Amino acid sequence: MATKDVKISNTGLSDTSFFGHPRGLAILFLTEMWERFSYYGMRGLLVLYLTQHFLFSDERSTIMYGAYTALVYVMTIIGGSLADKFLGQRKAVTYGAILLVLGHGLMAFEGAGSKEYLTFEGNDYQITLDGRGGDAPQVLISDTGRSLISFNEGATQMLIADPSAVGLPQSIATDSFTTRVIQQELYVNILYLALALIIAGVGFLKANISTIVGSLYDLGDPRRDSGFTIFYMGINLGSLLATVSIGIIGIRYGWNWGFGMAGVGMFAGLITFLVFQSWLEGKADPPSMEKLKQKVFGPINVEWACYLTGIGIIVFAMLTVMNAHLVPTWFVGVLGLIVFALMVGYAIVKLAGIERERMFSAIYFILAQIPFWALFEQAGSSLTLFTARIVDREMFGYLVPTPVFQSLNAGFIVVFAPLFAWMWMAMSKRKIEPSTPVKFAFGVFLAGLGFLALVGGIALSGTGLVLVWFIFLIYWIHTMGELMLSPVGLSAVTKLAPASAVGMTMGAWFLYSGLSNYLAGVIASGTGAETIGGQLTDVVAAKATYVTVYTNVAYVAMGIGVLMLLISPIIKKWMHQEEIT
Known about the structure:
Elements: H1 24-52, H2 58-87, H3 89-107, E1 115-120, E2 123-129, E3 138-141, E4 146-151, E5 157-160, H4 163-166, E6 171-173, E7 178-182, H5 185-215, H6 224-253, H7 255-275, H8 289-292, E8 295-297, E9 300-301, H9 302-322, H10 329-350, H11 353-376, H12 382-390, E10 391-392, E11 394-395, E12 398-399, H13 407-429, H14 436-461, E13 466-467, H15 469-496, H16 502-525, E14 531-532, E15 535-536, H17 539-575
Parallel strand pairs: 10-13
Antiparallel strand pairs: 1-2, 1-7, 2-3, 3-4, 4-5, 5-6, 8-9, 11-12, 14-15
């Protein structure tokens, strides 16, 4: 096959200030590290915060979490498009970082929290938690004192540890009292606004900062892949540091301290990016300053119109998160089908031959990510509540705070990513490296296998708590699946899509990533259990619900993985890898 000579610029090779890479990479590494520090730190606390501080139900909290994470992905399409056409990545990242600082800062304004009241024989008693996290016991407060409470198996009786202190019998039938929750509307709305600011901030920052990394290297620069690897390590370093430090501080010392620390981390990232912007050497500047200053209407120019679009995203995101429980699941499904139809229609009408088949394979990978992320993203919702309530988290005499376990994913990536890179290279030399479709199939299969392993842990626990090592096991299995699927997914899509449709396919990738996160929230809502004061009333019933939901999703994902493996030769043929130069 004939090839064209490509003239490669080597001007960028002279900048080796940061371990052989352009010094701009150091700024992007630190900015992204702090952004991920703030994001994953807040994420580790969020569902516990919703269920225990604001006393949202499990179902409402997990659906809200799913909508939040879905919008984070979807809004990167808008933020990336505005940067490409008008703002440039430098201004977009700066704007996004400012919104993130504001959002994380607002998360620290928690108020006194929601209050739950129990009404028995015409008298009201407050129910609260003595602490935060899965080990915080429930407390009943009356005019005369307070007492710890618990529930018998089946939650038919509420048991009062010190009945004389609260002037009640030692046990009360649960069908003889009612409960109600009173929320502080001001602080609930501050929560919605904070989440909306974070959604818009990530939308303007996440995709664009990755684009800047690519712009640091000239065409053909052999350091490009290595540079992205270093940048990827910054993401995982931020996640690892956050889920350990913020997780401990938020649970031990207070929600506002944890969220406040996340805000301080993001502020550090913003200052770093602002102070050292010159190191980017203009590679992230707006494509046209003249176009940026053009008037749109009245005194508003293109640049300010972009910023006002960000305000529109905030309003839309706030309303969506606030009403996430009202969004019908079928609407999300219809949206996915419409986008799928548009992509297939484009491939059939606009493309032919090899280009069409490559586009079909790109569409396949876009869709194939859905079952993986829908299960993987249980980590921040149902798996967090499971770990808090049903797992024996004591290790070596120390009760580990629930959010800390989310650090396992980042820790495993740091350890195993280099081993996977070495393994693929070694297998490639021997011509036995699995194809991208096969890797995807194994990734989805492992997502299901992880939950099946956890179901086994529940079965072994009997009526007691699940051994903590099963949490290590599910995170390890899921991380192995992530390393099979995530690093190659977006790369494959961008290589397979024709030049005229790269933007559309990348947008579709992020859109379906968002839909996957929403689906994760729907799945998590199915694990919801009865709670009082944000804690379970019946552990046995909750375990049975987890077994049912996790077994079902495990077998579905594993079945999809097997089907993907069977059709992988067809997808590999559509890819025409031998034609990609």
